[in-house]
Amino acid sequence: VWTLVYTSGTTGDPKGVMLSFGAATRITTLVQTVLPYRSDEHFFSYLPLAHIFERGSVAGAALASGGCIHFMDSLERFAGQLRTARPTRFCAVPLIWQRMQSDIQKQLPAGVGITQLGDAGRQALLKGLGLDRCYFAVSGAAPCPTSVLAFFESLGLPIHQGYGMTENFAYVSCNLPGANRLGSVGKAFPGVEVRISDEGEILTRHCGQMLGYFHEPEKSAQVLDAEGWLHTGDLGALDAEGYLSITGRIKDQFKTAKGLFVMPIPIENALLAHPAVAAACVIGSGLKAPVALVNLHPQHQALTLEQLKEQLLPLLQQVNAALGAAEQLARLIVIRETWSIDNQLLTPTLKIRRNAMDARYGALAAAALAQPEAVVLHGVPP
User: Fold this and answer.
1) Alpha helix stretches (DSSP H) within 186-263
2) What burial letters (b/e) apply to 93-120, b meaning 16+ CB within 10 Å?
3) Which element (helix H / strand E) includes 64?
4) Which residues have C-beta within 8 Å of that of residue 159, sequence separation ≥ 6?
């Protein structure tokens, strides 16, 4: 065992993943065959180094390349310190990319789009973010809305979605420069086997997977089978060219009171396409219909209920039009309380804790279903 890296704990208690020295050496070597490091690499570290995404994509990458790591000291100083670091490779979770998109859109004159700015204008915006010398931008840890990916591509900074988890050293697949298919998480890395089970679950196998969970042999046996396949718990699909797409997570799906299953992630991604929505969570376990909870971007926080209805009711109708009857959202609830690490609604890597959301807002969702309004406002403006 080289190290223990704990899972995020989005659906339960974190588990200690045992990773070996051999895995670290082999994966580091394989990564460089896909996208070799340059001699002037700079990395920006803002997530806990205890997380596999940061251990591999920042700490491990810097050790392998001889590059420089710039450490953020607080989330409040994120933007300014990113501008100072100017990383050459930048890995971020979707929430970070969404916040950056919102900040850029606030700077644009009314009626002016990204494509109207010209190369100099777009480069100035990238410099303002601190990403003007970034040649490889990655999104991981959770699905990134296609609208966000398309926005940054039009800005001149293609985001390459990748896929991996703590148990397989965050090494499964990634889109690459010149082969970036929006909506997918790319093709399998060298040395990685990927297949889809009959139930639609993604299975992976390679030389860098975990030895098991620390002091939890029963849970280890549940995810690592006798043939060495890791059962990821993620649902996905492979197309004819080998591009992998994530369609949901088995533990995220829930059953309504009607006995019908709902997969929340695709619905949440559709909601996140709206410029006012900063974060979304679909709940509904045991309820008669699913309900969407949303946080707004700061510039929309002061909107009145009537203004919110004007903006969000068409969004609710548009999202429902693309869903089956069992998945259609009965209510959209705007939550004034900001979801954060401090109130334990987000993990340290800014992923939603679904169990915590259910516990905190389940009664609110049930009460909203008893009311006639489709768009509901909860809480007072901050």
Assistant:
1) 217-223
2) bbbbbbbbbbbbeeeeeeeeebeebeee
3) helix 61-65
4) 97, 137, 138, 139, 144, 148, 149, 152, 153
User: Rounded CA gap, 165 and 7, in Å?
Assistant: 8
Q: Is the pLDDT confidence value at 382 over 50? A: no
Q: Which two tokens stand for residue 120?
A: 């100099």
Query: Cβ of 254: how many Cβ atoms within 10 Å?
Result: 19
Take residue 327 and report the two structure tokens written for it: 């998945």
Instruction: Look up residue 323 and give its two tokens.
Output: 């869903």
Q: What is the pLDDT of residues 263-310, one digit of tens each?
A: 898 899 899 889 889 899 999 988 889 999 999 988 888 888 899 999
The set of residues, in sequence order, having a beta carbon less than 8 Å from that of 53 and lying 6+ positions away, is 47, 91, 93, 140, 141, 170, 349
C-beta neighbour count of 193 within 10 angstroms: 12
In angstroms, the CA 185 to CA 163 distance is 6
Pick from 32, 18, 94, 104: nearest CA to 63: 32
Residue 305 — left, alpha, or beta (φ > 0 → left; ψ -120 to 50 → alpha)?
alpha
Is the dihedral angle over the CA atoms 337, 342, 347, 350 positive or is it negative?
Answer: positive
> Could you tell me the maximum CA-CA distance found in the chain, to the nearest angstrom?
61
Contact 271, 293 (CB under 8 A): no
State the pTM of this model.
0.78
